C-alpha cells in the first residue's frame, strides 16, 4: 500500500512539473515580445529589434524592469533571427534550440518511468545511467545540428581542430567511454580544441554526412577535413590523435645556431615572430594549438632551455629559464617588442597577448584582405581609423626612409592610426592612385594618410607635398598633419577609388592549379570511399563480380586449351625426339594413360633469383624437393618426376624444383660432402672425377632447419646392359675415341628408370623416417 502511494505521488509531481513547464513556455512568446506577426520577414524582425533595443537598453532606460525587458528582447531576437530555432519554436512551442530532441527525450523518459511504476523497482537495479538528466548533462551543451556544423564548425575548423563524438540511445559502449570522454573534454577544451557531440538517432543527416555508421565513433575535423579515431579510447590516445591532426611545420625548433635566421624572416614573411622558452623537450600542445590559430599572422618558434647552447639566447634576451616565457619580435631582432612570463600560462592569456601583437609596427600591404584588416571601413565618427601609408621602392636591405618611418611609427603608436608601407613596383596601380601626376615623386618615397569610406574602395586621403626622405623635418610635418587630423577630419580633402591589391605571397598559377586539383581528388576520394562507402558497396560489388567472372573464364579457357594441346602433341614430340637421336620406342604408348590430364605439377628451376625465396628463407615446416638433371635429360626426367610426385602435390608444405647440373655442379658436390655415407665423393685427382653422373638425384631441402634428405637412384639391369653394349660397340668401331664420345645413348627408358622408386622415398619423407644430413649454412648458388 505504501508503494502504491509513492507511485501516485510521483505521478502527481510529474504532472505538476509538466504544467509549470507549459505555463512558463506560454508566458514567453518571442513574437509578442518583439511585436511582430508569425509571418514577419527577417527585415521586419530586425527593424523591430533595433527599435526596442534602443528603447529598453539599460544604459539609456533606468526603469526598474528595463534590464529584464532588454534580456527578453535579446532572447526573442536570438530565436526569431535563426531559422532553425524559429522553426523549432513554431513546431514545439518552446524557445529551446534542442526542443525536438528534448521532447522525444521526455516521451521516452515517461515510458521508462511508467515501466518502473508497473514493476516497482528502481533504475539502480541495472546500474546503467540511462536517465536523460545524468546521461546528457555532459554532452548537452556540445550537441551539434547539421546547420550549426556547416555554418560554424567547418569554418571554425580552419582556426582550431574539433573532436566530435557520435553517440546514440542504448549504446553500452558509449556509456563505457563516457568517463574518459568527460576527462578529455575538460582538458582539451581548456587548450582550445573544439568539442562536439552528434546524436545519431536525431541527427541522422549529420551522422551520415560525417561518415559515421556505428556508435560510438570519435572523429577529428581540421581545415574542413574529417579523420576518424581508431585506437583504444584512453586519455593519452585521444590527446595524441588531436596532436596528429595539426600540421607538422607549425612550430620551428630554434637553437643558438638558427635563431638569427628565424627572427630575420619578418621582412620576407611580413609577420611578427614569436619565441617560447620552456623546460619541456617537446613543444606543448597548447602552443601548437595557438600556432595553428594564428598561423596566417605570426610565425612561431620553440626554444628548449635545457638544450646545450640555449644559454646564449636566454642571456641575450634576459629570459628566466624557470618559468615559461613568450617573446614577440617585430622589425627589430635584437630586442623583443613585447614579452609575457608566467607559470601555467592559460589559453586566454596567450590569445590576448598574440592578438595584441599579430601585426608588425609598419606592416607591408601584400593583399587586399590584409589592407581591409589594418584599415577598416569607417563605421561612425567615434570609430575612425586612419592609415599612414609609406610608398617606397623594394630594396634588399632596409632603406633610410623606411627606417625613419619605422622609428616614427614606434614613437607615435595610437589606436586610431595604423602605419603600413607598400612596394610601389609591386602595387603600381595602388601607388599611382595616391601619388600626384607630377614628376616630383618619381623614384622617391612618399607618405599618404587615408581613410576608407566603403568596401568598394572609396577613400579620402592626403599625400604629403614633399617626398619622404626620413629627415626630422619630414617627421615634424607628418606629426603636425596627424595632430590637425584629430581636430579636423576634413584635412583629408582628396577622394579616390583604390584598386584591389594583388596578393604578393600567393603561389603562382600552376601551383594553385595543382593544389586545387589535389584537393579536388582528395575530396572525391573521401566522398566515394569514406563518406558514402555504404552506397558504393553495391556498385563496387557488381564491378568486382564482373571482373572475377571474366578473369575466371579466361583462366579456365587457357587451361582447357593447354590440355587439348598436350593430348594432341605426343606424336610430334616422338618425331622431335627421333630427330634428336633419343628414341623412345614404347614409352609414350605405355605411359600416356599415366600422365595426369586434369592437373599438373608446378616445378620451378632453382636459380640465383629463386634461391633465397625457395630455400634460404623457406617458411618453417616447408621443404623443397629438388630434382638434379642435365640439359640432355631434362625433358624425360621432368616427365617421370611429375608422374612420381603428382600424388603428393596436395600437401601445401612441399615445393618442387629442379637444378641444372651443367650450371651448378660445384654447389651440389659441396652439399654431398655432408652425405659421404650415402653418396661418396670421388677424389678430385681421379681421371673420372668430372664424369660423375648425378642426374636423377633428388634432394629434399629444409631451408629453416638447414638439413636435407637424399634420394640416390639405383642402376637397373637394363641400364647396365645398355651401357655395356654401347661401350663394346664404341670400342670396336672407334677404339681411339671411346671416352666421352659414345655413339649409343642410354635411351629414355633407362633414364626414367632412375626415378622408379621415388614415390616410395616420398612416402618415407613424409613419415620422417629418412636420414637427415645437417649443414652449417646454405652455400651461395654460383
UniProtKB/TrEMBL annotation:
GO biological process: regulation of autophagosome size
Biased composition (Basic and acidic residues): 563-582
GO cellular component terms listed in the entry, alphabetical order: endoplasmic reticulum membrane
Topology class, membrane: Single-pass type IV membrane protein
Pfam families: DnaJ, Thioredoxin
Region (Disordered): 562-593
Domain Thioredoxin: 119-247
J domain segment(s): 29-93
Cell compartments where the protein resides: Endoplasmic reticulum membrane
Gene3D superfamilies the record matches: DnaJ domain (1.10.287.110), Glutaredoxin (3.40.30.10)
Keywords: Autophagy, Endoplasmic reticulum, Glycoprotein, Membrane, Signal, Transmembrane, Transmembrane helix
Signal peptide, first to last residue: 1-25
Top-rank taxon, per record: Eukaryota
CDD domains, alphabetized: DnaJ (cd06257), TRX_DnaJ (cd02963)
PANTHER family for this protein: DNAJ HOMOLOG SUBFAMILY C MEMBER 16 (PTHR44303)
Summary of the function given for this chain in its UniProt record: Plays an important role in regulating the size of autophagosomes during the formation process.
Protein name, entry field: DnaJ homolog subfamily C member 16
Species, as recorded: Equus asinus (Donkey)
Lineage: Eukaryota, Metazoa, Chordata, Craniata, Vertebrata
Gene (name only): DNAJC16
Amino acid at each position: 500500500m505504501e508503494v502504491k502511494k509513492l507511485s501516485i505521488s510521483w505521478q502527481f509531481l510529474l504532472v505538476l512539473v509538466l504544467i509549470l513547464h507549459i505555463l512558463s513556455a506560454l508566458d514567453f512568446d518571442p513574437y509578442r515580445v518583439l511585436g511582430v506577426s508569425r509571418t514577419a520577414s527577417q527585415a521586419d524582425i530586425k527593424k523591430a529589434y533595433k527599435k526596442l533595443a534602443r528603447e529598453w537598453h539599460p544604459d539609456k532606460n533606468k526603469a526598474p524592469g528595463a534590464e529584464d525587458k532588454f534580456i527578453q528582447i535579446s532572447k526573442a531576437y536570438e530565436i526569431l533571427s535563426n531559422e532553425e530555432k524559429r522553426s523549432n519554436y513554431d513546431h514545439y512551442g518552446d524557445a529551446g534550440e534542442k526542443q525536438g530532441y528534448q521532447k522525444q527525450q521526455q516521451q521516452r523518459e515517461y515510458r521508462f518511468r511508467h515501466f518502473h511504476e508497473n514493476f516497482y523497482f528502481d533504475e539502480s537495479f541495472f546500474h546503467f545511467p540511462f536517465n536523460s538528466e545524468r546521461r546528457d548533462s555532459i554532452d548537452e551543451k556540445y550537441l551539434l545540428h547539421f546547420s550549426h556544423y556547416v555554418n560554424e564548425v567547418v569554418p571554425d575548423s580552419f582556426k582550431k581542430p574539433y573532436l566530435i563524438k557520435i553517440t546514440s540511445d542504448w549504446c553500452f559502449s558509449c556509456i563505457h567511454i563516457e568517463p574518459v570522454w568527460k576527462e578529455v573534454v575538460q582538458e582539451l577544451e581548456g587548450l582550445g580544441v573544439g568539442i562536439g557531440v552528434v546524436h545519431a538517432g536525431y541527427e541522422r543527416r549529420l551522422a551520415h554526412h560525417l561518415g559515421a555508421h556505428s556508435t560510438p565513433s570519435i572523429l577529428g575535423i581540421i581545415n574542413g577535413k574529417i579523420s576518424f579515431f581508431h585506437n583504444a579510447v584512453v586519455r593519452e590516445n585521444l590527446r595524441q590523435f588531436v596532436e596528429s591532426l595539426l600540421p607538422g611545420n607549425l612550430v620551428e625548433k630554434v637553437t643558438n645556431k638558427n635563431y638569427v635566421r628565424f627572427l630575420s624572416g619578418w621582412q620576407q614573411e611580413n609577420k611578427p615572430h614569436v619565441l617560447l622558452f620552456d623546460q619541456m623537450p617537446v613543444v606543448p600542445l597548447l602552443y601548437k594549438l595557438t600556432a595553428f590559430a594564428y598561423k596566417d599572422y605570426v610565425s612561431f618558434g620553440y626554444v628548449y632551455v635545457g638544450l646545450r647552447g640555449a644559454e646564449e639566447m636566454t642571456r641575450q634576451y634576459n629570459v628566466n629559464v624557470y618559468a615559461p616565457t613568450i617573446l614577440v619580435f617585430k622589425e627589430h631582432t635584437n630586442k623583443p617588442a613585447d614579452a609575457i612570463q608566467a607559470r601555467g600560462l592559460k589559453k586566454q592569456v596567450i590569445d590576448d597577448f598574440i592578438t595584441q601583437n599579430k601585426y608588425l609596427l609598419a606592416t607591408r600591404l601584400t593583399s587586399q584582405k590584409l589592407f581591409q584588416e589594418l584599415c577598416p571601413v569607417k563605421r561612425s565618427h567615434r570609430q575612425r581609423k586612419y592609415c599612414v601609408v609609406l610608398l617606397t621602392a623594394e630594396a634588399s636591405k632596409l632603406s633610410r626612409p623606411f627606417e625613419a618611418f619605422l622609428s616614427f611609427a614606434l614613437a607615435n603608436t595610437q589606436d586610431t592610426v595604423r602605419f603600413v608601407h607598400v612596394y610601389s613596383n609591386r602595387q603600381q596601380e595602388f601607388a599611382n592612385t595616391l601619388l600626384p601626376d607630377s614628376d616630383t615623386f618619381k623614384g622617391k618615397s612618399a607618405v599618404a594618410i587615408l581613410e576608407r569610406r566603403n568596401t568598394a574602395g572609396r577613400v579620402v586621403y592626403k599625400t604629403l607635398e614633399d617626398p619622404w626622405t626620413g629627415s626630422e623635418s619630414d617627421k615634424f610635418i607628418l606629426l603636425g598633419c596627424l595632430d590637425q587630423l584629430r581636430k579636423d577630419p576634413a584635412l583629408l580633402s582628396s577622394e579616390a577609388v583604390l584598386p584591389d591589391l594583388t596578393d604578393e605571397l600567393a603561389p603562382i598559377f600552376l601551383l594553385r592549379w595543382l593544389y586545387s586539383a589535389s584537393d579536388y581528388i582528395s575530396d572525391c576520394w573521401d566522398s566515394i570511399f569514406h563518406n558514402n562507402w555504404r552506397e558504393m558497396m553495391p556498385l563496387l560489388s557488381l564491378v568486382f563480380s564482373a571482373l572475377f567472372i571474366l578473369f575466371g573464364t579466361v583462366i579456365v579457357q587457357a587451361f582447357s586449351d593447354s590440355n587439348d594441346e598436350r593430348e594432341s602433341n605426343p606424336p610430334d614430340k616422338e618425331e622431335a625426339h627421333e630427330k634428336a637421336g633419343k628414341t623412345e620406342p614404347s614409352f609414350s604408348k605405355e605411359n600416356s594413360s599415366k600422365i595426369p590430364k586434369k592437373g599438373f605439377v608446378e616445378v620451378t628451376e632453382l636459380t640465383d633469383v629463386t634461391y633465397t625465396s625457395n630455400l634460404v628463407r623457406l617458411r618453417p615446416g616447408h621443404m623443397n624437393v629438388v630434382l638434379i638433371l642435365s640439359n640432355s635429360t631434362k625433358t624425360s626426367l621432368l616427365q617421370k618426376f611429375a608422374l612420381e610426385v603428382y600424388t603428393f602435390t596436395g600437401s601445401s608444405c612441399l615445393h618442387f624444383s629442379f637444378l641444372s647440373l651443367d650450371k651448378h655442379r660445384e654447389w651440389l658436390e659441396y652439399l654431398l660432402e655432408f652425405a659421404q655415407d650415402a653418396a661418396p665423393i670421388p677424389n678430385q685427382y681421379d681421371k673420372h672425377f668430372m664424369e660423375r653422373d648425378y642426374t636423377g638425384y633428388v634432394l629434399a631441402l629444409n631451408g629453416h632447419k638447414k638439413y636435407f634428405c637424399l634420394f640416390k637412384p639405383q642402376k637397373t639391369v637394363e641400364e647396365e646392359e645398355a651401357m655395356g653394349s654401347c661401350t663394346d660397340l664404341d670400342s670396336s668401331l672407334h677404339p681411339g675415341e671411346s671416352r666421352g664420345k659414345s655413339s649409343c645413348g642410354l635411351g629414355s627408358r633407362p633414364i626414367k628408370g632412375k626415378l622408379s622408386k621415388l614415390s616410395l622415398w616420398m612416402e618415407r619423407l613424409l613419415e620422417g623416417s629418412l636420414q637427415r644430413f645437417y649443414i652449417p649454412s646454405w652455400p651461395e648458388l654460383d
